[in-house]
Structure formats: structure tokens, C-alpha cells
Amino acid sequence: MPAPATYPVRTEEDLLTVRHAVRAATIEVGFGLVDQTRVVTAASELARNAYVHGGGGTVTLDYPREPSGRRGLRLTVKDEGPGIADLEAALTDGFTTGSGLGHGLGGARRLMDEFTVRTGPGEGTVVVVTRWAVR
Amino acid sequence: MNGHRSPGVPILRLGDVLVTGLLNELDDRTAIAFTEELTERISAEGARGVLIDISRLEVIDSFVARTLMELTTVARLLGARVIVAGMRPPVAITLVELGIELVGVETALNPEQGLAALGWRQAEQPLEGARRGTAR
């Protein structure tokens, strides 16, 4: 597996770069087309959140492996923005403080197998999501 | 790799229907430029239908979804009906899981069915030249 790699999210072009990198990583891990699409879409939502709400940040890709040998792809999306004041509300469909549809966070959670968020006012936001390959 | 920065997504006219297609991905600036150009073309050419082929589009996130919904609403205000055709199955599955319904956006399995729904029919007879070529 490739070494972990971190991509900046500072411009709209960076969003495209992140999508390309994530697509390549899903192929590397051996995901089928539907899983590739799920993970790239989740990455697109989370990277956009970091760009729009967090004032920019980073996306790190790494390749965890379960003791059983099952391979996965993990995205860690970080920003140093104001943080999410009401996480429960932010995870609800239709909630948005920006220009999206308000499906980003909750949608990304549904598209991935594992999902954690660390956030708080003044602390920024870190979202970690993982999808495991089907054996 | 980013040489596709120009917003020039080709928009063709077939009678009173405009036909266009999105490429494998849609960045924000292209999405906005595309919406504006399509709106202008609908108005300038009196289009009554718009077919958007998305069979090459590999990702529809909430931003692209919102663009398609807004485009459809704007077109409807101008009197044109939009049909989005050719969504890839993995994209459809992902959209549903994401929780996006593409409210108000009409879809078709492929461009042919989309054009048929817009009332645009393929000529039943082969063209003159084609018929001559295949005679006997």
C-alpha cells in the first residue's frame, strides 16, 4: 500500500485534486465501482465542508488493514475553522449554514463504514471516515 | 490536467430542443458558467426542452445535485423542460444513500429516451444518401 499522503484544501482546484487522489486510492485498495463512487462522493462532501465552512484544511489518505487482512481506505479531513457548534443538527439532513443541500456530513456518514467527528468552537473540525473493502 | 478550465460545454440545438452533456466531473466554476450559458441559450433560441446527458459524470455530490435542481427550476421558469439522462448506476446508488432526491428533476435512462420524452423523434426512414447506399 502507498504511504499516507496529505493534500491541501485551499482552493476549488484543490477539491478536484483531492477527488482524483481519492479515486486513485480506491482503485489501489481494490474497491468496486459503487464503492469507488461512494468514497469519492463522501470525500467531495467533506473536502467541500472544510473549504466552505472551515476556511480550508487538509485531507489525509491512509490505508488501514484489519487483523483479518481486510484492506480499507481512511480519510482524515481537518480544518482550523470555527468548529461545528451543534453537531447533532449538522448531522441532520437538510441542515446547512452554507450553499449546499445540507447532506454533506450525514451523507458522508452513510456512505462510509466508520465515521467520527471531533469539533468544537475554536478547535476546528476533524472528520475521520473509513470504508473497508469487501473480501 | 486542468486544461478543461474553460466553461465551454458544447450546447447543440435540435429543433426546439437543446442537447448538452456534462463531462466526467463538474467543478464549481464550470457549473456556474454552464448554468448561465444554458439559461441564455434557452431564452435566445426559444428552446422548449433541454436534454442533459450525464452518462460521463462520475460523481454527483450535493453541489452538483443543487446545480442540476437550480438549472431545472430556472429552465422551467423560462418555459423549458429539462431531462437529465444517462445517470450511471453507481452514481444513482450513491445519491440515494447520500439522501438526495433531485427534487423536480426529470430523468431518463439514456439520451434517446430523454429526447423521446421531449417529443423529439428519430426519422423513421433512413436518410436519402443512406438508402441509396444500402439499396438492394
TrEMBL record, chain B:
Among InterPro entries, the record links this protein to: Bact_StressResp_Reg, STAS_dom, STAS_dom_sf
What species is this protein from? Streptomyces yatensis
Protein name (record):
STAS domain-containing protein
Superkingdom to which the source organism belongs: Bacteria
Q: Which residues form the STAS domain?
A: 16-118
UniProt cross-references to PROSITE patterns, sorted A to Z = STAS
